[in-house]
Automatic annotation (TrEMBL):
Protein name per Swiss-Prot or TrEMBL: Tetratricopeptide repeat protein 17
Coiled-coil parts of chain: 164-191
InterPro entries the UniProt entry points to: TPR-like_helical_dom_sf, TPR_rpt, TTC17
Organism placement in taxonomy: Eukaryota, Metazoa, Spiralia, Lophotrochozoa, Mollusca
TPR repeat spans: 189-222, 260-293
Keywords: Coiled coil, Membrane, TPR repeat, Transmembrane, Transmembrane helix
Amino acid sequence: MTYDLPGVSYMAIYIISLHIVHSNSKSSVGSNHWKLNLEEGKVVQATDDDDSSAGKSGSNPNKDLVLNILKNTVIENGEWRVVDNMLAQSTDIETNQLNKDRNKDSRTSDSTGQTDVHTEKPQLTCGKPVNYTQYDHLRGIANRNEHGQIPEPDVAMIFKKKNGKSSEVDMNELEDRLKKHKKQKPKSAQTFNQIGNFWRIKGNTKLSIECFRKALSISPNHPDVLLNLARVLFNLQYLDDAIFLTRRSLVMQTPQDNSWLQHFTLGEILKAYGHYQEASLHLRHALELNPEFQPALAHLRDMEGAPNPSITQYTLFIILFLIMGVVFGVITSMEASYDEGNEGKPQRHFNRAMAMRSMKLGINPRLIRLRKLNC
């Protein structure tokens, strides 16, 4: 019958095909489509209602939450965070504007035409630390990474200009000048020595020691570098290392140069040891070479007022020896007198007995004594 009604066959095929397509679309929704559930905070399988709502929204990609997550995910402080498109765009705009403002503020011109630089200056250093010097065996240098901050403002007098009106030293100007010297003479031991003194003023002992080490790697017997390094270690109470470097500096000092500072440093170290006699010799020699140096006079006054530990020990030893001698003499004299007393008593008893016997016999005691003497 179907060949009589071809339209019925076509209608049946259309209905069956439509049913198959509809069933496949439902199964795909239930098994292959997923969505983000904001309330639960996880991805769940989509339902028919979600599919119908998605169909109403059309094919706009902005309505797909999963796609929005992939597009709007940002990383801040090591954490993932999802932001809205508009918020992300505004953040980018603010970031770009902030960078522009920083670049603009980095160099601003005033009314006089001078420029004010707000960018941070690079730190003044001596470059990469050297691997080894012949003084690295000293304990104070080996422990340079453990030292604390010890500012030495008096070191600034080294950089004071002789004809300068002000007694203060501009550290910013000094830093710029040292940077210039370093650029002009990148392998100068004196330049690294001055940079080390700069960090002594700041109190950074580690950087100062590294700069002195670099200077000694270029000139191992430089007397100024050895003395400055000794001063740093002396302030850190490494007395053995400090006196070794100071004596080495004094030996390496040329006769044409004044060595008053070496003698003064030796005086200070020996005073800290308690060797006042030797310390006073070096301090007096420093005053002979530099008569107007008041700290040397102050040290001498302190040592004159303080008792000498060596003299005190000798005095106590002598007093103790005298006391022991007196006690020994007293004990010896007492024993001698005791022995004499014991020996005299029997002689007295014997003489009395002989006298009584002679009186009874009528014999004169003088005759008995004469007989004893004649015998």
